[in-house]
Write a structure and sequence with these properties.
The chain has about 350 residues and is an alpha/beta fold. It has a domain of about 220 residues: 3-Layer(aba) Sandwich (Rossmann fold), CATH 3.40.50.1820. It has eleven helices and eight strands. Strand 5, helix 5 and strand 6 form a beta-alpha-beta unit. Helix 4 crosses helix 5 and helix 6 packs across helix 7. The radius of gyration is 26 Å and the shape is elongated. The protein starts with a helix and ends in a 13-residue tail after the last helix.
């Protein structure tokens, strides 16, 4: 080969080699960047999982995501939310109710604080369980109404909240043990039937898990805005701050499960609902940003035909006793009346149409 052609060929191979080296370097840089982003996303998810399941003893709670400025949202994304341990600021006495403060111990020796509000001529007993990061005083409006209807009422602080032991929540997983302990207390304290378990949001998830695990056998359930799957409700919290639910929600659920020793992807009230054998009333708000209508209805539809679904058109996430008092009282009064007359025995057929 002539010297000139050999030189041109060497130059071409040299340029090709340079291009290939640059491409390899770029590829390595891109892979390093993607890996760094993956690590960062997991670190953020780990922090959020910890902060969302560990309450602090003092501090100012992070406002709802919808009310945060862009700068505040960025800060929350980096550091996670601040969730002080919920405290009871009122007692039943402020509502004119006589009560007794009682302590019950769960199967793992966690001490739970409760208020027992007896009725002079009880039609049965309702146990009320609060939602995520809330305590029993948040359920005082419902307890006043139920007591006026003639029911014994037991209000419970989940572990980690109010006056109960600890500062940790497992979003309804370990709280199923609290449901079982409170049910034993109510059964021992009163011979009146039926026993109705009333759970709001996470409280509803804990109630359904307790039923599915065979820890309780209530005669009725009332559930306000129950989420269908843990990964779904976590995803809604990410979209509220402008982040896509995937993959962040799955990362958070994974790390939360690692931190607390459970499979967060199996914590699904929509699956627990298949174990329900008693009449159940599911209440949902049309404007709820934490649980969609379809999600709550799926939980109700999974209850072997035992569920009754009622939708409050103008309401958001729970608190229907205050946001839609007349409608709420009509619906719950009719459903409880049907329960005591023809649904208190598990072999009886429950009401299948929304009451009221």
């Amino acid at each position: 080969m002539p010297e000139r052609l050999r030189t041109e060929s060497d130059m071409r191979f040299s340029r090709l080699g340079t291009v290939q080296r640059r491409l390899r370097l770029r590829g390595a840089a891109v892979m390093s960047l993607l890996f760094a982003c993956f690590l960062l996303a997991n670190a953020v998810a780990y922090i959020h999982a910890y902060r969302m399941t560990h309450y602090i003893t003092a501090g100012t709670r992070t406002p709802r995501p919808e009310s945060l400025s862009l700068r505040q949202k960025v800060r929350v994304l980096v550091t996670g939310p601040v969730l002080p341990k919920a405290r009871n600021m009122k007692t039943p006495r402020e509502l004119g109710l006589d009560y007794r403060a009682m302590i019950v111990t769960a199967s793992d020796n966690t001490r739970l604080a409760t208020w027992w509000v007896p009725s002079p001529c009880p039609r049965g007993t309702v146990i009320l369980f609060p939602g995520y990061s809330s305590c029993r005083s948040s359920l005082l409006p419902q307890s006043r109404f139920l007591h006026d209807l003639g029911w014994n009422v037991l209000l419970v602080d989940f572990r980690g909240c109010g006056d109960s032991d600890g500062t940790v929540t497992t979003l309804g997983v370990e709280e199923a043990k609290d449901v079982a302990a409170a049910s034993r207390l109510a059964i021992d304290g009163s011979s009146e039937k039926p026993l109705v378990l009333y759970g709001t949001s996470m409280g509803g998830a804990a109630v359904l898990r307790a039923v599915a695990d065979g820890l309780v056998e209530p005669e009725g359930l009332i559930l306000e805005c129950p989420f269908d799957r843990l990964v779904t409700t976590v995803g809604h919290r990410f979209t509220a701050v402008g982040l896509p639910a995937f993959p962040f929600a799955r990362m958070l659920v994974f790390w939360g499960g690692i931190q607390h020793g459970f499979d967060g992807f199996a914590h699904n009230p929509v699956d627990y609902a298949r174990s329900v054998r008693s009449p159940a009333l599911v209440l949902q708000g049309r404007k709820d940003r934490r649980v969609t209508v379809a999600e709550a209805r799926a939980v109700c539809d999974g209850m072997n035909g035992r569920g009754t679904f009622h939708l409050f058109q103008g309401a958001a996430h729970g608190g229907f006793c205050e946001s839609a008092p007349s409608e709420y009282r009509s619906v719950v009064t009719a459903w409880l009346g049907a329960l005591t007359t023809r649904g208190s025995r598990k072999e009886d057929s429950p009401p299948t149409e929304p009451p009221g």
